[in-house]
């Protein structure tokens, strides 16, 4: 059983630390970290779910996002914040990005190759699928209007199992009268989504070739936000990447197939140990 401790990095980035082993793993959470109003209970619940996907003998940091981002909030600023945390607080680490967090993790690995030992993109890619991009645009429109019911409708069919989709929709119906209490401020949601939707990531993906870390991309063939083409393109452009696809699984692959995802992550991390062992970290020579 892991011990969980919470805190803030840079006086603004919430995190939960699980365990105390060597060779840390830094997890950049998905969009739910800024879509829902942050609470300690929700952060701990997310951390417990995510920690199950990773080896028990490693320290795991699950990072959220700035709760009140400035108006010019963008992915570049998020990347530089995470880089500072790694440089000043944690050190080089394996980095896993989940969904939205995958955008940040990939950019981090390309911009700061010396800080990322291994990279895992979980239900993520360097760009959305066409259907996923349309869904994000609709989410932004709903958030601007404060239409949280419409916003959550975009997630109505994210599970593979129909009964889980039914439960999710039932939960949304039960919460509709207090969504303004549980959802984050609309401006914060929009700024978070604009951080990744505000620029066309698929227009020039050549920046992926700057990623030097061994990379694992894990996704489902029925993911409505990141399709097989997007994930395959990401894997093709990263010099040392492998793609692990689960047939008929959706964006909720980490929930519905947690054990299988954990097995894939463990095998990848064991195959690609950290580039340092005990002594001072030596940055890899530039390509």
TrEMBL record:
Provide the GO MF annotations for this entry.
Answer: hydrolase activity
- Give the protein name, as stated in the record: Alpha/beta hydrolase
* InterPro entries reported for this sequence: AB_hydrolase_1, AB_hydrolase_fold, AB_hydrolase_sf
The lineage's top-level taxon is: Bacteria
Q: Which organism is it from?
A: Microvirga splendida
Q: A Pfam family matched by this chain, by name?
A: Abhydrolase_6
- Outline the extent of the AB hydrolase-1 domain: 47-263
Q: Does the keyword 4Fe-4S apply?
A: no
Keyword tags: Hydrolase
